[in-house]
Amino acid sequence: MTEGEAAPAAVSEQGSRNLVMRVVAALVLAPIAIALAYVGGVAWAVLVTLAVIGLYVEWLMITGLAGEARVLVPGIAALLFSGLCLMVGRIDAALVVLAIGAVALVVISGERRNWATSGLLYAAAAEIASVLVRLDAAKGFAALLFVFLVVWVTDIGGYFAGRSIGGPKLWVRISPKKTWAGAIGGFVASLLVAAGFAAFEIGATGPLLLLGALLSVVSQLGDLFESAVKRRFGVKDSSHIIPGHGGLLDRLDGFVAAVVVAALFGFLRGGADGVGRGLMVW
């Protein structure tokens, strides 16, 4: 076997190993997330708080700010204390704490204040939205599960469609591996999730299909956004905390975008206490 023949085989073997690691990690992490989402309340707020602190830290690692205590400490403190407010049901207090944290970063983080503050706002939006979607006792879990599944199948469908079909690239400069086939495959998979929810009479078919389509597109845009930030700073993975997946930011970028849009949509229809109902009841 020549060196040229051996290289593709090695790449294929590495890709297969990476896929196995991704599957194993997903089989471990997904049930934990779903279980805590089902429990809701303090348990879900704790998971969300820990996750968004991880997102913020990884954002600072990507942008080269993780070593600056004046950026790291106030941001983590704001997310932690806002999380404590959310655990006792005080969303208003959480918003105040996050606003104070953002202002503090603007004042003390120096020339890189734009990247520091945007990282906190990114994590804060994910924190508030994730709790708001779950807040409704009757429909919160169904709404959150809908967001989970749409994001996951968009990612999985995109992965397999992209690898099996290939074809034109989606946006080479930002994400060289993503293809239009993958984007469409993920989009179609999200419609299947929406159809499944409608089949179980969790919501009306037409609106759920539109919502699934919207969240799938938003999820993919969130993925591209994170890729653009990493490319801006010459970083491949946000970290290596999840085997086969990279970092939290690499895995949650699509979810962050989708859950924020879902929360905004649900809030407009159901108010702060009825975000889940606003998403699921038509």
What this model shows, in words?
- The chain has 282 residues and is an all-alpha fold.
- It has helices spanning 3-39, 41-63, 69-87, 91-108, 113-135, 140-165, 180-199, 205-232, 248-270, 275-280, and strands at residues 169-171, 175-179.
- Strands 1-2 form a two-stranded antiparallel sheet.
- The model is unreliable at 1-8 (pLDDT under 50).
Topology:
Layout: H1 3-39, H2 41-63, H3 69-87, H4 91-108, H5 113-135, H6 140-165, E1 169-171, E2 175-179, H7 180-199, H8 205-232, H9 248-270, H10 275-280
Antiparallel strand pairs: 1-2
Helix pairs in contact: 1-2, 2-3, 2-5, 3-4, 3-5, 4-5, 5-6, 5-9, 6-7, 6-8, 6-9, 7-8, 8-9
Q: What order do the strands of the largest sheet run in, or round the barrel if closed?
A: 1-2
Secondary structure class reads mainly alpha
Total number of strands:
2
Strand fraction: under 5%
The 3D shape can be described as globular
Order of helices and strands: HHHHHHEEHHHH
The N- and C-terminal alpha carbons lie at a distance of: 62 Å
Low-confidence stretches: 1-8
| Mean of residue pLDDT values | 91
Number of helices: 10
**Gyration radius, rounded:** 19 Å
Helix % is over 70%
Biggest sheet features: 2 strands, antiparallel
